[in-house]
Amino acid sequence: MPNDSDSDAALVARMAAGDEQALGVLYDRWATTVHTLAYYLLGQADDAEDAVEETFWQAWREAGRYDASRGAVSTWLSTIARSRALDRQRARRRRAEEPLDGVVPSSDGSGGIAGSRSPAANPQQEAEASERARDIAAALEKLPAEQREVIELAYFGGLSQSEIAARTSLPLGTVKTRARLALEKLRAPLAQHREGAP
Amino acid sequence: MSESSGHDAVRDLLAMDALDALSPADRAALDRHLTTCDECKRELAALRDATASIAAALPPRPMAPERQQGMRARLVARAIEDRAGITPIRGGSSSPSSPTSPPQSAASATQSARPTFARWLAAAALLLAIGAIAYDFSLRGTIQRLSVARAELRDSTSALERRLADQQAILDGLTGPGVRVIDASVASARQPYARMFWDQLTNRWTFVAHNLPATAPGHTYQLWLVTRDQKKVSAGTFTPSAGGFALVRATYPLSPDSLAAIAVTNEPAGGSAQPTTTPFLVGAAAKTD
């Protein structure tokens, strides 16, 4: 556990003051987590690495805007990473006119993930997409299938609430409620962890 | 709207906001509520943490160590450049005045004695200062453009290096000195056939197949390594291209004599822990001497 002067928040404060070594330490600490997220969103190692670099660069440039009351540094980094990865995913979709069905996982977790499939995707990418779908399903296994679907579409597919409602043929209110119930379930272990922390 | 009904109305919006999936109208409504409700702010922060926890639950996918270190070095170098770039070279507001303003006491002493000369001197200094500022801006613009161009070139080079390394890895898996080849085929109209390249020095497996029929919706092919003690190890799932082509790469350590065969089965999408159907393709591995 880092001490106070080396905590994530302290590193971000040092970055805001122009300390590039703090950026290096934060990178060492979170690069794998950010890369993992980018990889699962994009499905391609090249794109994922570019998204990681963009994420930490944006963190450096916007360190002064980090607000601890809005969430932990890891949450802040994940939000930036997801945003950068989804930008790439959408750009790729526009370039390839990728059908929506190939961009988000199917509800049974068997489909391609987050832009990993396109009409020209090769078999290796298809196989990797299936593997990622399994991993994501495992990560969200505690959720009921209907809640998991909403989370997958929003989080990994980058769809808006209206797009999710259209895709699932559910009323918008149901989509919102399922998202809330899902996040509350995901939140419970975090709360327990914090209560159990010294 | 009462306080409690306000909470009820925004509770669902908080979750969608944490997922960054809100419509602009809902976001505006939520932002208005958050300006006066600390409880919902705390709730939103907690839901954002919960959303971020999804990433932590995924199996880690680290970058290759050398690539990770390379990226770290690039980021730190860019940060140093960036920091140097944002530090005012001559001090933003003071730069125009410093060259033009002689020390206050000297100015006072000369102003009454030689007013015309002092004005000319001031005007000349002002012109020099304006020129210096314009040059400074021009220089900064050039540096910025060069930095962007360099970053783009670096990105492009990195992408090419990654693709080259990927191609080289495939080539190594097919042509390395320790590569064994296992063929698999069936007798049918379309004659699907496949070939597995096993690089025994690096434990890399490269499976290439042709003429594979498309899988039914909800199904996928799964590749297995069958050991001599009948253990079936999954080497991954795959779906062939429209032309029936497939390429699968895997890394799995296996002692040279322990492979009995490779097999491909048709499995439910996502794959199975063990084969659930009769193998569609089988290739027996010859014993090594």
Structure description:
- The complex is a heterodimer of chains A (198) and B (289).
- Chain A has 198 residues and is mainly α.
- Chain A has a domain of 97 residues: RNA polymerase sigma factor, region 2, helix turn helix motif (Rna Polymerase Sigma Factor, Chain: A, Orthogonal Bundle).
- In chain A, helix 3 packs across helix 4 and helix 7 packs across helix 8.
- The termini of chain A are close together.
- The C terminus of chain A is likely disordered.
- Chain B has three domains: 53 residues, no CATH class; 79 residues; 106 residues, Immunoglobulin-like.
- In chain B, helix 1 packs across helix 2, helix 1 packs parallel to helix 3 and helix 5 crosses helix 7.
- Chain B is flat and about 105 Å long.
- In chain B, strand 1 and strand 2 form a beta hairpin.
- The N terminus of chain B is likely disordered.
- By secondary structure, chain B is of the alpha+beta class.
- The longest helix of chain B is centred in the middle third of the chain and has 61 residues.
- In chain B, the strands form two sheets. In chain B, strands 1-2-3-6 form a four-stranded antiparallel β-sheet, with helices on one face.
